[in-house]
Amino acid sequence: xxxxxxxxxxxxxxxxxxxxxxxxxxxxxxxxxxxxxxxxxxxxxxxxxxxxxxxxxxxxxxxxxxxxxxxxxxxxxxxxxxxxxxxxxxxxxxxxxxxxxxxxxxxxxxxxxxxxxxxxxxxxxxxxxxxxxxxx
Length: 136
Fold this sequence. Notes:
globular
């Protein structure tokens, strides 16, 4: 039986009808065999591929919202409940993906002048401090 992660990946790739499997492989710069391995629990996609899949589907007006809602729910569950590859995912799928987004954020900042980097970072820190935090 496929894991929840494999099942939602198959739904994201097939039920959204944005691309065929062949087109997904081209868009992600992977083989169709890689896609098959992901949905058969042989391995998991690199975080960058998950981010690419989810981001393009969120941007598309044709993506059925229920699929993304299901993905969001699974992404916040303990990784040991959603995949046999939980050791690679860390605590949650969302953590795995957010680490990639942080990497992309800092790569985007890197070519900017240092004073602009500082300004952006300070603005974002101020925004974060305004968010009410839940205490466990």
